Amino acid sequence: MEIGFVPAIDPPVVQPESAYWFLFQEDRLLVQQAADGGLAPFCAAADALPAPPVRTQYLGWLSGAGERVHCYSGELPPDLVLTNGYAAVDLRQVFEAFDPRLFGLAGRAKQIAHWDRDHQFCGRCATSMTALEHERAKRCPACGLTNYPRLSPAMIVAVTRTNEEGVEQILLARNHRFPIGRYSVVAGFVEPGESLEDCVRREVREEVGVAVDEIRYFGSQPWPFPNSLMVGFTARYAGGEIHVEEAEIAEARWFTADALPQVPPKISIARQLIDWFVAQHGAAGARVEDWRVR
Ligand SMILES: [Zn+2]
Question: Which domains does the chain have, with CATH numbers?
C-alpha cells in the first residue's frame, strides 16, 4: 500500500502517542539528528517536545501499512535554546535530508503555522479572530471577515528558440541575488487581475525585453519561501533583443544544452525546466547531472 498524506482540520480526540511535529522558531524548523547522522523531523509524543509550543495546528495524517501517523505544525518560543541533538534549521537545508513527502509536509506546516501566527487579529477591525471548525479558515466575530491561508502564485518559464545555425537555445538570466555564476529561468509573481499567461508575457518582457508565444503549462511546485505556488511554463521566443531590467537582473543570455552555466539545485522547478530542455536538446547520451552545480 502506498504511503500518502491525508490533510485534515480536526485533530484526533485522543492525543496520539507519537506524531510528527513540524515546529518553527521564526523561519527555522526543529529537527533532530537521525541514526544515520542526517537530519530528521521531530517524531515523538507531545510531552517529549523540547518546550511547550506557543501555538499548534493539526495538519492531517500519513497513512500506509496499516499505520496512521498524525502531523502537527506549530511554533516554538523564539528564544528557546535547543540542545540534546535538536537544532532549528532553514527549510532549504532539509531539501536533501528529508524524503520529498516529508519535505512537502514541512513546507505546508511552515505556511500554516505562520498564517496562524500572523492572523491572530482581524485586519479590518482588529478583533481577535476565531478559528473555524472543519475548515482551514478564521473568522472575525465582530465584522465577519473570513481569512484563509494565503498563497502567492508565481509563474516560472523556460523560453527557448532556434538560433541562426538551427541550434536550440534556452534563455537564462542572472539575478543580482544569485550566487556568483548561477543562472536560471525567468520567474515573477502574478499580479491581481492577471492571467498566468499574461504574467508570463509581462515578466519576460519586463525582465529580459523579449516577446514570447506558444505558452504551454509544464507543472507546478509549492514553494514555501514564504508562500508561493510556482506555476511552470514553456514558451517560444517571438521577437526582440535581450534588454535586462537592471534593478533585478545582472545579465541574460541564450545558452545551448551542451554549454550551460551553473543552474539551480535539482529540487526546484526551475531546474526541472532546464533539465527538460537538456533532455530534449542535449548531446545523445548526455546525462543531465553533467550540469550539476559545482
Ligand atoms: Zn473584524
Answer: 4-118 (3.90.79.10), 120-149 (no CATH), 152-282 (3.90.79.10)
